[in-house]
Write a structure and sequence with these properties.
Blueprint lengths: L1 H14 L24 H17 L2 H14 L7 H15 L5 E9 L2 E2 L3 E5 L8 E3 L11 E8 L16 E4 L15 H4 L1 H11 L5 E5 L25 E4 L1 H12 L5 E6 L2 E2 L4 E10 L4 E11 L9 H20 L6 E8 L7 H10 L4 E7 L7 E7 L2 H18 L6 E4 L7 H4 L5 E6 L4 H4 L12 H20 L9
Parallel strand pairs: 5-6, 6-7, 7-8, 12-13, 12-14, 14-17, 15-16
Antiparallel strand pairs: 1-11, 2-10, 3-9, 4-8, 5-9, 11-13, 15-17
Helix pairs in contact: 1-2, 2-10, 2-13, 3-8, 8-13
Bound molecules: zinc ion.
Zinc ion binds next to α8.
């Protein structure tokens, strides 16, 4: 049903003039029509319509998502399953006619989770927890201590004298999603995970627990990277579910002096491992030295299947490339689908691409899908201030053409972690903002599996990616570079 309705909307959009001004009586125009370039909406209405239809019918995209998430499963940096995913995706991309595939070697750190558990001393029932990525372990004996509760990183300094010898719980709730601003509250909360163990450890804490960074009370615990200071102490860090954080907090408030025992076998291997970025290129038909890159990250955490994060982004890029090739839509510029490795554990893939491929040509734009598989509602643009207004107007034309699929707007925002090294060189980046209302319910959890992905929503993302890549790689002038 949803497919049929969307197809109808596309047909309506293709047949309409689009802008309100079109209804007003036209004044006499002294300039010959041929002197003005056609608006982007006119030039690209037909190809974008074809892209949307082909994406809605891209059964292979769903089959690929099932293969990556369901068959291969999660893909932690340095793991054999990540390299299975690299081999699989490179093989599938190599089968697309006219596409050249490179597997770029990248050295990545290898962090191993091992077994882990948390218990309240005096109570046998295990508490729901998951170790933080990059954390040190506790040793076989585990770490036991009384719980001290802090409500944010801001309390570390004023309460520093209370933390020595204790297990510190950061119980900071992530705010609810704001549908008006698309603000998730993740950015303002995630610091307890990334920096809590380093900061409390520096004040003598034995270990750190963090309330999972989510607004969803019912989700399993959420992992994610934590970052120590080079010179500082390294104490174990783990996330607990929201109810566990609230229970421990309540016991402390009641004066019960709860003690917990944390056991984690986590460790980082001495040696790095070789992983790979997968790069699939279709050369441009007129401007092959100008390059539009687009993609997602092929690694994931070692819980769930990494399907929203970021299997969907990876397959969206693969499918977008195939949609364009099968429609015969070779843009003027070169396009590269990139499946970056090691996003979650250090961004080594994105840095390796920048180091070895920045000089390949002029990088005109970088596009990233790394916020789940819900429908794309906005194009988030990151660029220099002086270029922003023009670039947003250009992206606005793409939004107009894709409005029937649910895309709402182009706005200033965040391009994405893997394209961020390109920003340092002045390349504008575009993040596909998949509706983030429920992304952080699943993010970095055992619940991030293909069963939580809606097929039609996922295929809408393929359409938005393919259309955005095509227009940005074909249009004149190039993005935010008016002549
Ligand atoms: Zn991600």
């Amino acid at each position: 049903m949803r497919r049929a309705a969307r197809g109808l909307l596309v047909a309506l959009a293709l047949g309409s003039c689009g802008t309100p001004e079109a209804a007003a009586p036209e004044p006499p125009d002294p300039t010959p029509a041929a002197a003005e370039p056609a608006p982007l909406t006119d030039t690209y209405r037909a190809p974008v319509g074809r892209i949307v239809e082909a994406s809605e019918d891209a059964d292979y995209a769903w089959t690929w998502l099932e293969a990556l998430c369901g068959d291969i499963g999660h893909r932690l940096s340095g793991s054999p399953s990540l390299e299975r995913a690299v081999d699989w995706s490179a093989t599938e991309l190599d089968a697309i006619e006219g596409v050249r595939v490179e597997r770029q070697p990248v050295q990545v750190g290898v962090w191993i989770r091992g077994e882990e558990s948390l218990e309240l001393v005096g109570d046998d029932a295990p508490l729901a927890m998951v170790g933080l990525g990059g954390s040190v372990g506790t040793g076989e004996e585990g770490v036991e201590g009384e719980v001290v509760v802090l409500s944010s990183l801001d309390e570390v300094e004023p309460r520093a004298s209370e933390l020595a010898g204790k297990i510190v719980l950061f119980d900071q709730a992530m705010p609810d999603y704001d549908p008006d601003t698309y603000e998730t509250g993740y950015g303002e909360t995630v610091g307890i995970r990334t920096r809590g163990p380093a900061q409390a450890g520096a004040r003598g804490a034995l270990a750190v627990l963090v309330r999972s960074v989510t607004a969803d009370r019912d989700s399993p615990p959420h992992t994610g990277a934590t970052r120590y200071d080079d010179e500082g102490p390294r104490v174990p860090g783990a996330a607990v579910s929201v109810p566990v954080a609230e229970r421990l907090h309540r016991l402390v408030d009641e004066g019960a002096h709860p003690r917990v025992r944390l056991r984690m076998q986590a460790h980082t291997e001495e040696a790095t491992a070789t992983s790979h970025n997968v790069i699939a290129e279709l050369r441009g038909r007129e401007l092959p030295d100008e390059i539009v890159v687009f993609g997602g990250h092929i690694d994931s955490w070692d819980v769930g299947q990494g399907c929203h994060d970021d299997g969907a982004g990876v397959v969206t890029a693969m499918a977008a490339l195939r949609v364009l090739v099968e429609l015969g839509l070779t843009p003027r510029r070169t396009i590269r689908a990139i499946l970056w490795t090691n996003e979650e554990n250090g961004l080594a893939g994105a840095r390796a691409y920048e180091a070895e491929h920045w000089g390949d040509g002029l990088h005109v734009a970088g596009i990233e899908s790394d916020i789940g598989a819900a429908p794309v509602i906005a194009l988030d643009l990151h660029t220099e201030d002086v270029r922003r207004q023009d670039a947003l107007a250009q992206l606005g034309a793409i939004v107009t053409l894709l409005e029937p699929t649910g895309l709402r707007e182009a706005r200033a925002g965040h391009g994405g972690a893997d394209v961020s090294p390109l920003e340092d060189h002045g390349t504008p980046t575009v993040g596909l903002l998949h509706d983030p209302a429920h992304y952080f319910d699943l993010h970095h959890t055992a619940a991030d599996t293909i069963e939580t992905v809606d097929r039609d929503a996922f295929l809408q993302g393929v359409a938005v990616m393919a259309a955005t890549v095509y227009v940005l790689a074909d249009m004149e002038p190039r993005l935010s570079n008016p002549r």
